[in-house]
Amino acid sequence: MKQLENKVAIVTGGGSGIGRAIAVLYAREGAKIVVTDVDEKGGLETVAEITATSGNAVFVHVDTSIPDDNKAVVDQALQQFGALHIAVNNAGIGGPISPVGDYPIAGWDKVIAINLSGVFYGMRYQIPAILASGGGSIVNMASILGKVGTPGSAAYVAAKHGVVGLTEASALEYAKQNIRINSVGPGYILTPLLTNALDNATLKALEGMHPMGRLGIADEVAQLALWLNSDKASFVTGSYYNVDGGYLAQ
User: pTM (2 decimals)?
Assistant: First the structure.
């Protein structure tokens, strides 16, 4: 039997990178997928990849920084598939690179709105639907920068630390109600978020920051998220799992 047979899952930021890898893997493991993104083209491409192999998926245009968008996607999942069991709150942006004393206020607000508030808004509407469906599991996408800092990315670091704390608090709240909530901390992963923002020399330097001497790939993160959202992780909640080639062990 497939690991997510007969489950319904929302994957935010599913139009590329880690989100796409998770959506495709979950569909392959039997889940019905609601793919969300602000990038309609990318989201539809993910759905097409899933349906091309007889998977079941729909796309919903969602800006996770807007509470009503998060409510609408849950409503769509219930209308389309009749339940909600799994959510992966993955949507995020990198934001400006600048010291705190010069950091653009608008950039700070946008990063916090998408990377932190968007996770809260998602869970705010996902959890009641998951409860009504008999329980389930949520994975929130944090980062290695949810545990340590790095210069120039205060908003991103603050948001990802917030995701880890939000995950822990909500996991405690719903531990006795059959909802498990965990966070994942990827190292630097070869995704469009990274490759579109950095030149080859910078990417090479990032490789050297990981003891394994390379960057991660999206499917390596997806495999961890699959385990956390499967029954194999039935006694795991409130945890943070890094997938980082040894970065945080240094």
Answer: 0.97
